[in-house]
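Co-fold these.
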Amino acid sequence: MSQAVGRDGHAHGEHAFDEAWFASRASAGVQRLRAYDPGHDLVAMRKRLGEANLVELGSNENPYGPSPAARDAIVAQLQALHRYPDPLGADLKRALAAKHGVDIAQILLGNGSHELLMQLGQVFAGPGDEVVCSRYGFAVFALATQAAGATLRMVDALPGDDATMPLGHDLDAIAKAVSARTKLVFLANPNNPTGTWFGRQALATFLAQVPDEVIVVMDEAYAEMADADADAASALPLLGAHPNLLLTRTFSKAYGLAGLRVGYLIGAPGLVAVMERLRESFNVNGPALAACEAALGDEEHLHMACARNAEQRAALAAQLGQRGLRVYPSQTNFLLVEFGPRTARIEADLVARGVVLRPMGGYGLPHCLRITVGTVDENRRLLAALDEVLA
Ligand SMILES: *Cc1c(COP(=O)(O)O)cnc(C)c1O
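Predicted complex below.
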């Protein structure tokens, strides 16, 4: 316990300078906020068990890694570490604009799409405003809302026994939850942690119901991984007709570059310009800019990783299903799986065997675990450990 002494030299009463006290000094939104839960302490586990003894399937990383061209680009950048990166990220934005057939002024780069989602909250919502998202929607949506001091309206998802898309976004209910106070709607397609998705017609119908004044965010972190024949529509073709719509993408998943922290937003040039006002000037570092540009040039590697993921996703889902476990449909690189009332115990027993999955209690799905689809070998090791634990 120490005594707070003001600048005027007077004591202001006794209190510990602890988290509770500093929280009381924080803005209203931050007072109610809890920090993002990244799951297990993997760094400590790697030290304790050795990386070779771990099967890390908790963070939806890409086990095939990035394009070799991305690694080479980073090595080339090592000559320039004393320089600030290009504050505009112009080369990467040009490459992204060409890939997606949009104008360079429609693209904003972020230190991961996480940063962009937080910034959207800060820019467009504040105290008294509402932000709408789905239950079981990506955790950062709630964080971005609370950090901005806005009020979250969480709309019930489709029921777990829905015939078409269990636990999926209920777009009609989300549209109905939009009010005169709503500033932002966060959607994820496909969504994490459910793996669920919705189609282009459903999205078009939704957008027709939502007033222009409301900014609609489509988080498309897993878009590259959706099967070509699945109706998991990207919002991209709808941007022209709906300037209030934007989408976010990331290099963390299909491109295998989670360690670099690069995401991007595509939206109306005016929206990007307003977001720029709050962007930290050098938010994406030089090696990351170069590596992502190189990764975009290697479509073959991207297609290899996505094809292997799709193949392993189907195989793993079938294997888990054969064990009597309920596996939710997914167009991502993870599966949401129901383990019933013994879930916490099963998860702990798997961790004891070096198999790391993501508990879902924080999402209100305590009977589920989220399992990243690994390589053939990782999935085999997961299933072997699971068979021991379930026996
Ligand atoms: C992984 C993920 C992201 C990506 O986050 P980054 O900050 O770009 O690594 C964004 N949205 C969802 C739904 C995700 O699952």
